[in-house]
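Thread amino acids onto this structure.
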């Protein structure tokens, strides 16, 4: 329907007035268009621009903010947007993770839409913003390279990117040619993460957290240098020296690398059983780092490593394991523990705490920045939150720099806490949270005034992204998303439709942490945290909010109890929470006493409920609550509870044993609970009546939501992700039937339940065209919209209508007559409808949370649609409620024309009328107006109208007014009213005289006459005899007695005809005199005489006063005397005269009893045992006084004598009962009787020894009362009555006391010290026999005189180790074995020693005879064994025949020699006897040996040359060097004048060669071994 203008109004809830909306006149069936309103904060801050990626080029700074926009800040901090443009494409206006990095004097951007290549990285010219592509990394059409995780180093940017087959590591110098894939996932494997640091010109890549690569930005220059068994985390600090860069890995270890495999080594490690990242930094050339020492109590130790000498020095040992990152400027380093700020120059003396306070929380691990000698960092106090601090290294110079977010809320940005220092400008940049500006770029020069906002780049109001909306009796509460961060996040919609933060106060705040909110009895409950528990608190407890204040319900546990899944049912709140009993189900009624765990279902600290934050299914049926729980025995099964411990039991164990059925998807009807559970491993739909075992309805089902229409239950099955089918069930397996396969729906539920039944949507045959179905509560189905282009996104059911989003518009439908678009939220506010969520109704508004296409954020909006918008038309003109309908002049007994008012509902909800009283005419003249049509609709539906017809029949002359009201049961539009007016003319009138007697008593006061006309017009009156009475201003003035006549007349006017005159005869008779009594009417006995006074209305004097009882009051003329107390009647009389008759009246006077007082002085304090004493008191009346005691057990009174009976207090009352003329009187005084004192005598106690017999104590009290005894340490000395038993050595104070009695005060206790010494013990330990290395383990034996167990230790476990009483020989030597008994609480320690000598063992060598070898044999391995297992050495007697290298024997010639096997022993074995074996080497046939006696060849084996010594007769030889295969290697001729020549072998490979020397006809061959 096309929107058309009309006139409408709605009545506000609080002021009940009508607001008119003028659109077009005369189109009564047009629906109104509501106004879209964005909900803002009551005290809004501007939006967050979230500056990031801060880089410096030249004297300017560049950064991203407002999602994807690039900004430039000059050196004077003037900020402007730098438009990123390109003739080759454009920057996308969505934030898809845009990042920048510095590359030379340009800016690398990871994401830009280039026309030809799509979304790829580019280079931005910082002067112009012009952007050019670098490379088409992902050449697939329409694809993204998704470049991310940028790192700039040495003029190269490194990043991850997608080229079509997965993520790879890339490097670029800003050119296409210089953009290369340096690590390919196809060869390396899947790459999912990367981190970076550097060493000199190399970038170091941490791939997939544990593999370290070094790269120069090229493929060939990229290599794996280490694979770690824990993650590498350089963000915790690196330290670069000239030779290495040091870094931590997550197992408490320090490593270093120079970019090579061999240069990557572990440097140091802590003594820790699990992971941890040691912080480190470089200070004065030393590498400082922290390691945890588990053996020292799990504390951190700070070390300084001197790389040049390769040793470390301990600087200090902390009292905690928790330290921050190290921040260093090269000369000094700062770090912190929880409450202490430290500094170090790398020396023990220069490592010191400079600020320590339990009220200051220093940063857990983040780094600070240096500005010259000033260091800036974040720290916190409870009153300021986490803010920017500064230090100059001194205690006084360490303080808060500026409280940016004033109050307890922190300004430190939890998403970007980095402080960015700039050494050139000496400035620090950061992005704090500010209550007015949001998250923006700030700067600090180290001063308070110089710490300021650079620019507010996002001045739009900050949106609130909603986690939950809760309509309640106290308003609509909105829970903002929090993710556990310490910012107040609970709001309420106030009367101005703004968000009021209810958790932030001036000096404290709360925040909801990982919990939902729930209302119980008008109070809002949540699991949350209070700043009053400390800025770093881990206390997460149950709180409630009401009436502007937040209070802790109960401290559930001194830890993160994390209450969640809050559910209010039947005036009780159920929730899941952690405590010492694990994660269990609790209940609360809002009081601390009423907040208790229902039952420890999983005993101990095991979790009965899942520890996640998911909502726990919970329903109430048949006076029982049903929920899933795991008791550790049956698995996660269905339980029930009546909220008592004994009534909390397993309802059914669906999966046998410890297997879990995991009940989910709870849905309750009046008498059934539907749910799904695993049955034999298959998810099954089940139903129970809460009494018997569940029935299986449908197997292998995945249910996303249940509904109910009438008595039928429907449910959506998501049989494949995003694919749904609709089913229905009557609670039986046969009655569980699929209704329709609905098809594909992304991110929504294609059905909604409302009062009228069920609406669902079907994707018609998968065509992406949709049919809308309606099932009424009788089960009848119909289609109300077909072939729709869009489906329902999200919806809200309200009464007979469903309000839903579709095609970026809000619609409403009843599934029958209406399917109407209300408003396009995209046209009105650039909002998308498909992400709209968290729909809620409150007051007359629909609230919803959706994505804003202009700000790219989720925001909260409202549409005022839940009030009827009523159009009123009268005489073809629009009118408003309160309009006056004019009916004009109408004669008596006539009727006006009918006035017709057309009433139309142009809103989107029904207007419901009150039964039988829906239309009412009220007012003084309501009867003059009549409603002609007496039948009206009970409900005026949207778009419907009816007519109201009214006529006027005047019932009197003149203007006549009334009002007509349409009464509705709806709030806020509960009434519409109109004023009715008309004029009656030509009406007759009559004069009426009412209440006028024919005799009137004379009066000197004018008399009102009741004579009037029925028209209400004034009547004219005249008297027939003015001397008797006359008419003055309408009143009768009497002058004397006698008859006369009154004539009344009325002439009429424009509305009334003249009235007939009326004559009234009247007679004036004698007047009446009235008397007023002017004296008091109440006196007291003893008052003096008084004068009686009275006044007569006629002015005549009083004739007499008389008393009815002169024994009480006696009257003499006008004087009265009081004789006694009592009551009398005084009669006053006055005589008659000419105008008035005689008169008398009686008046009552009361004479009260006189009061009396008693004088009774305070009583002195007494002490128990004092003698009796007398009392004294007097009454002012002179009457006798009597005495009494309030406690005769304390003090008794006999006459005036008091007898003391016991200590205490009693009230002594002095009383006088009074008589006829005096009232009773009493006075009291407190008598205090103090207890008597007593003292104790208790002599000193003698010293005792453990084992002594019990002894008796003796002390006495002066009161004679029994003395009691007590021991200060009953584990040392136990007192029973007067006897003391000695239980163990030690000291105890024995106290003698007398507690007193009713009559004696407690005595001062007397203490005596009792010392019980330990008993001694001796150890018997016999000398130990000598042992030999290799002997088996043996038992040690010793005993204590006390029978206590003995512990044995060895002075040198490297020689003899001792385990319990077993000694094992490790090596030869001598040790001292100590037998010790450490003593106990009762016995002193004792020890005894014996020397144990372990001698070396002997050994023998087994070496078999050697075989005969040939001169051309290959080297062989000799085998000889020492009985000790030690290695055997070999030696050749003649190396010209054979040489030995280890166990390898190499033939070098031929002949006979000997080989000797030796083993020299070690620390455990004596040297073995040598074994020598003969070796015979036979010359191989064909090898000449004629020259062997005349020529010497050496060394053999050799590495670089062979020397040949010729005899005197041989000065020249020819040589041939061949392989053993015969292949010639070298040949030549050798001559020597000195008898020696050399053949070089440097260029030859290792191996065996044959050297043949020839002199004439003589020749010889040598086997040469080249190493």
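Threaded sequence (1571 positions):
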């Amino acid at each position: 329907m096309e929107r058309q203008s009309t006139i409408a109004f709605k009545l506000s809830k609080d002021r009940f007035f009508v607001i008119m909306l003028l659109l077009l006149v005369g189109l009564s069936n047009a629906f109104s268009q509501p106004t879209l309103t964005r909900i803002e904060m009551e005290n809004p801050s501007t939006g967050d621009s979230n500056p990031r990626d801060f880089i410096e080029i030249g004297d300017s700074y560049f950064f991203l903010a407002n999602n994807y926009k690039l900004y430039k800040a000059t050196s004077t901090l003037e900020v402007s947007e730098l438009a990123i443009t390109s003739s080759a494409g454009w920057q996308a206006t969505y934030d898809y993770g845009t990042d920048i990095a510095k590359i030379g004097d340009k800016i690398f951007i990871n994401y830009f839409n280039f026309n030809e290549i799509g979304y790829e990285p580019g280079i931005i010219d910082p002067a112009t913003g012009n952007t050019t592509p670098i490379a088409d990394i992902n050449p697939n059409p329409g694809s993204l390279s998704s470049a991310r995780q940028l790192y700039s180093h040495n003029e190269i940017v490194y990043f991850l990117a997608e080229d079509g087959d997965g993520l790879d590591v890339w490097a670029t110098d800003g050119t296409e040619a210089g953009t290369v894939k340096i690590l390919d996932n196809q060869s390396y494997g899947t790459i999912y993460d990367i981190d970076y640091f550097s060493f000199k010109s190399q970038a170091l890549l941490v791939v997939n957290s544990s593999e370290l690569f070094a790269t120069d930005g090229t493929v060939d220059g990229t290599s794996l240098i280490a694979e770690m068994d824990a993650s590498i985390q350089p963000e915790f600090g690196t330290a670069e020296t000239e030779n290495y860069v040091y870094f931590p890995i997550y197992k408490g270890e320090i490593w270093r690398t120079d970019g090579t495999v061999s240069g990557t080594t572990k440097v140091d490690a802590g003594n820790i059983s699990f992971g941890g990242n040691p912080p480190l930094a470089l200070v004065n050339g030393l590498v400082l780092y922290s390691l945890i020492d588990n053996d020292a109590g799990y504390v951190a130790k700070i070390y300084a490593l001197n790389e040049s000498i390769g040793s470390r020095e301990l600087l200090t040992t902390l009292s905690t394991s928790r330290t921050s990152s190290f921040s260093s400027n090269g000369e000094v380093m700062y770090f912190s523990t929880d409450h202490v700020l430290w500094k170090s120059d790398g020396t023990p003396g220069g490592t010191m705490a400079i600020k320590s306070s339990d009220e200051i929380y220093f940063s857990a691990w983040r780094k600070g920045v240096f500005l010259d000698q000033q260091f800036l960092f974040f720290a916190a106090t409870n009153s300021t939150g986490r803010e920017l601090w500064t230090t100059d290294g001194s205690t006084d110079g360490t303080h808060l720099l500026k409280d940016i977010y004033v109050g307890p809320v922190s300004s430190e940005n939890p998403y970007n806490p980095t402080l960015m220092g700039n050494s050139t400008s000496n400035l620090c940049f950061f992005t704090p949270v500010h209550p007015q500006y949001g998250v923006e770029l700030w700067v600090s020069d180290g001063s308070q005034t110089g710490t300021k906002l650079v620019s507010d780049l996002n001045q739009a109001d900050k949106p609130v992204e909603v986690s939950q909306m809760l309509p309640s009796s106290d308003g609509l509460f909105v829970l903002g998303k929090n993710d556990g961060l310490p910012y107040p996040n609970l709001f309420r919609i106030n009367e101005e439709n703004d968000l009021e933060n209810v958790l932030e106060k001036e000096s404290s705040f709360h925040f909801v942490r990982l919990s939902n909110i729930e209302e119980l009895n008008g109070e809002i409950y949540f699991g949350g945290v209070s700043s009053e528990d400390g800025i770093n608190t881990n206390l997460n407890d149950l709180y409630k909010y009401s009436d502007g204040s937040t209070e802790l319900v109960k401290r559930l546990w001194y830890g993160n109890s994390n209450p969640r899944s809050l559910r209010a049912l039947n005036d009780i709140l159920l929730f899941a929470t952690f405590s010492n009993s694990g994660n269990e189900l609790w209940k609360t009624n809002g009081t601390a006493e009423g907040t208790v765990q229902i039952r420890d279902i999983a005993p101990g600290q095991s979790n009965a409920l899942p520890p996640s934050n998911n909502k726990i299914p919970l329903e109430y049926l048949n006076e029982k609550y049903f929920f899933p729980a795991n008791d550790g025995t049956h698995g996660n099964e269905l339980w029930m509870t009546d909220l008592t411990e004994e009534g909390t039991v397993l309802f059914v164990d669906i999966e046998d044993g410890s297997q879990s059925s995991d009940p989910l998807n709870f849905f309750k009807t009046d008498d059934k609970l539907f749910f799904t559970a695993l049955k034999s491993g298959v998810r099954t739909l089940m139903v129970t009546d809460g009494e018997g075992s569940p029935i299986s309805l449908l197997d292998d089902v995945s249910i996303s939501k249940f509904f109910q229409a009438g008595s039928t239950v429907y449910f959506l099955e998501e049989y494949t992700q995003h694919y749904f089918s609709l089913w229905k069930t009557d609670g039986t397996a046969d009655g569980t039937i699929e209704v329709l396969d609905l098809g594909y729906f992304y991110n929504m539920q294609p059905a909604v339940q409302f009062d009228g039944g069920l609406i669902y949507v079907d994707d018609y045959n998968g065509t992406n065209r949709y049919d809308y179905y309606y099932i009424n509560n009788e089960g009848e189905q119909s289609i109300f919209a077909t072939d729709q282009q869009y489906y329902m996104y999200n919806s809200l059911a309200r009464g007979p209508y469903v309000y839903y989003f579709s095609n970026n518009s809000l619609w409403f439908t009843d599934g029958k007559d209406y399917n109407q678009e209300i408003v396009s939220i995209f046209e009105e506010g650039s909002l998308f409808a498909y992400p709209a969520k968290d729909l809620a109704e409150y007051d007359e508004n629909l609230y919803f949370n959706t994505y804003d296409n202009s700000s790219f954020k989720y925001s909260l909006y409202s549409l005022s649609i839940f009030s009827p918008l009523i159009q009123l038309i009268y005489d073809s003109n629009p009118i408003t409620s309160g309009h006056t309908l004019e009916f004009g002049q109408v004669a008596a007994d006539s009727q006006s024309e009918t006035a017709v008012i057309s009433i139309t509902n142009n809103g989107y909800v029904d207007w419901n009328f009150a039964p039988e009283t829906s239309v009412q005419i009220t007012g003084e003249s309501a009867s003059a107006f009549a409603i002609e049509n007496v039948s009206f609709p009970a409900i005026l539906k949207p778009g419907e109208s009816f007519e109201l017809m009214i006529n006027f029949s005047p019932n009197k002359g003149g203007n006549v007014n009334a009002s007509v009201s349409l009464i509705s049961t709806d709030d806020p539009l509960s009434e519409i009213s109109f004023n009715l007016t008309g004029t009656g003319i030509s009406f007759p009138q009559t004069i009426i005289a009412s209440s006028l007697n024919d005799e009137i008593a004379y009066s000197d006061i004018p008399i009102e006459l009741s004579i009037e006309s029925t028209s209400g017009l004034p009547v004219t009156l005249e008297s027939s005899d003015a001397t008797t009475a006359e008419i003055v201003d309408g009143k009768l003035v009497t002058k004397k007695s006698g008859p006369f006549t009154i004539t009344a007349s009325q002439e009429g006017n424009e509305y009334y005809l003249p009235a007939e005159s009326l004559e009234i005869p009247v007679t004036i008779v004698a007047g009446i005199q009235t008397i007023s009594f002017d004296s008091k009417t109440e006196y007291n006995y003893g008052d003096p005489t008084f004068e009686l006074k009275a006044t007569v209305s006629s002015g005549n004097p009083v004739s007499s006063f008389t008393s009815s009882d002169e024994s009480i009051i006696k009257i003499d003329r006008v004087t009265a005397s009081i004789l006694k107390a009592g009551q009398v009647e005084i009669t006053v009389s006055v005589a008659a005269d000419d105008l008035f008759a005689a008169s008398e009246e009686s008046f009552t006077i009361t004479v009260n009893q006189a009061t009396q007082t008693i004088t009774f002085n305070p009583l002195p304090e007494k002490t128990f045992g004092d003698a009796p004493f007398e009392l004294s008191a007097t009454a002012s009346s002179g009457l006798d006084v009597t005495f009494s005691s309030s406690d005769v057990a304390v003090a008794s009174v006999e006459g005036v004598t008091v007898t003391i009976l016991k200590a205490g207090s009693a009230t002594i009352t002095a009383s006088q009962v009074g008589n006829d003329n005096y009232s009773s009187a009493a006075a009291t005084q407190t008598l205090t009787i103090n207890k008597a004192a007593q003292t104790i005598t208790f002599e000193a106690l003698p010293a005792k020894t453990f084992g002594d017999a019990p002894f008796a104590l003796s002390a006495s009290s002066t009161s004679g009362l029994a003395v009691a005894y007590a021991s200060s340490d009953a584990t040392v000395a136990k007192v029973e009555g007067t006897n003391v038993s000695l239980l163990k050595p030690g000291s105890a104070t024995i106290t003698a006391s007398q507690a007193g009695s009713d009559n004696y005060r407690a005595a001062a206790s007397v203490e005596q010290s009792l010392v019980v010494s330990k008993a001694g013990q001796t150890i018997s330990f016999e000398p130990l026999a000598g042992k030999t290395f290799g002997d088996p383990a043996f038992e040690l034996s010793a005993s204590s005189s006390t029978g206590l167990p003995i512990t044995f230790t060895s002075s040198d476990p490297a020689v003899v180790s001792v385990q319990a009483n077993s000694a094992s020989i490790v090596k030869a030597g001598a040790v001292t074995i100590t037998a010790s008994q450490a003593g106990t609480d009762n016995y002193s320690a004792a020890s005894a020693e014996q020397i144990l000598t372990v001698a070396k063992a002997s050994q023998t060598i087994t070496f078999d005879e050697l075989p005969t070898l040939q001169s051309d044999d290959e080297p062989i391995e000799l085998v000889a064994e020492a009985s000790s297992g030690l290695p055997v050495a070999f030696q050749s007697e003649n190396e010209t025949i054979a040489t030995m290298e280890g166990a390898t024997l190499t033939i070098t010639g031929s002949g006979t020699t000997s080989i000797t096997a030796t083993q020299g022993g070690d620390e455990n074995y004596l040297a073995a006897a040598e074994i020598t074996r003969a070796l015979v080497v036979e010359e191989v046939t064909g090898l000449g040996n004629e020259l062997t006696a005349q020529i010497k060849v050496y060394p053999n084996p050799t590495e670089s040359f062979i020397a040949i010594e010729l005899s005197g007769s041989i000065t020249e030889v020819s040589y041939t060097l061949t392989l053993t295969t015969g292949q010639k290697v070298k040949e030549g001729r050798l001559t020597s004048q000195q008898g020696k020549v050399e053949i070089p072998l440097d260029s030859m490979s290792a191996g065996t060669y044959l050297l043949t020397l020839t002199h004439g006809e003589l020749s010889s061959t040598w086997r040469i071994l080249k190493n």
